[in-house]
Structure to design on (286 residues):
């Protein structure tokens, strides 16, 4: 085993994930519909009643649509992480996952390649959603561009904002993908995954700062406020929110990075047939 083998495995696994995504066009449109409904329908209805006052990283009053956009980006990545874990359950039932994990390459490296492929898919979905949000006139970071001295001025997406948010999106995508990978190791049958998926996604999304600031949560319920504080999704949202305005939320970065390491480590252990959850399943089946 050498570097060439590692690169070949990386290209094969990541390429397979991208090819699967391109062949499943309905998966892309489904990922876009959910956040767009929140952004266009619900946020438009709440816009007058739920304007957000000045708070970091914002330097002025913002509309509700602007506030929930980072949470919707995180929701796209969360759904993609669950979809990726669903495909892992399917591959395990079909036997392709077993073949992959029996290769002489380190199991943790193989899982990381699978995870990185999932992150690339989520990035395509996130940036496509941002483009649609700009087209609908959402007041996100933008740059004034004039193509001629007497021409009209156009507001285009800020390139620096799109670049500065990329590392945050990669890290949050890895956290959600690793979490989905860990969950997939506990699912015995594909039919059971839908219920588990809803049980994970909706509590994480609603009990976070994606829809409302934490100080509003505290005014309504102190218990719910502390639930949001213990929710990793909250810190993923805040990491994306600050990065979008070229700032770093160090607390969110530490929590998301720590959760990513923990989830990925547990996934590697769970998929180890000699020690983890998969070994116990094989023993129980025998």
């Amino acid at each position: 085993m050498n570097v060439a083998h590692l690169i070949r495995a990386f290209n094969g696994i990541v390429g397979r994930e991208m090819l699967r995504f391109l062949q499943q066009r309905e998966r892309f449109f489904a990922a876009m519909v959910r956040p767009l409904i929140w952004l266009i329908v619900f946020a438009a209805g709440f816009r007058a009643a739920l304007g957000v006052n000045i708070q970091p990283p914002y330097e002025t009053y913002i509309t509700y649509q602007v506030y929930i956009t980072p949470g919707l980006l995180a929701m796209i990545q969360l759904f993609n992480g669950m979809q990726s874990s669903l495909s892992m359950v399917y591959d395990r039932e079909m036997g392709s996952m077993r073949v992959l994990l029996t290769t002489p390459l380190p199991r943790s490296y193989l899982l990381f390649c699978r995870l990185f492929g999932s992150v690339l898919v989520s990035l395509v979905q996130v940036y496509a959603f941002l483009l649609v949000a700009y087209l609908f006139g959402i007041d996100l970071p933008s740059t004034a561009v004039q193509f001629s001295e007497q021409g009209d001025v156009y507001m285009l997406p800020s390139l620096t904002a799109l670049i500065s948010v990329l590392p945050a999106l990669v890290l949050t995508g890895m956290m959600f993908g690793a979490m989905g990978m860990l969950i997939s190791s506990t699912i015995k049958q594909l039919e059971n995954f839908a219920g588990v998926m809803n049980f994970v996604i909706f509590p994480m999304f609603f009990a976070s700062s994606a829809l409302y600031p934490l100080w509003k949560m505290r005014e309504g319920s102190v218990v719910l406020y502390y639930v949001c504080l213990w929710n990793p999704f909250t810190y993923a949202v805040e990491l994306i929110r600050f990065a979008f305005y070229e700032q770093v939320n160090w607390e969110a970065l530490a929590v998301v990075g720590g959760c990513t390491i923990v989830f990925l480590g547990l996934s590697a252990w769970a998929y180890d047939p000699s020690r983890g959850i998969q070994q116990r399943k094989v023993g129980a089946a025998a």
Q: What stands out?
A: DSSP finds 13 helices and two strands in the chain. The first helix runs from residue 3 to 23. Residues 3-139+159-274 form one domain.
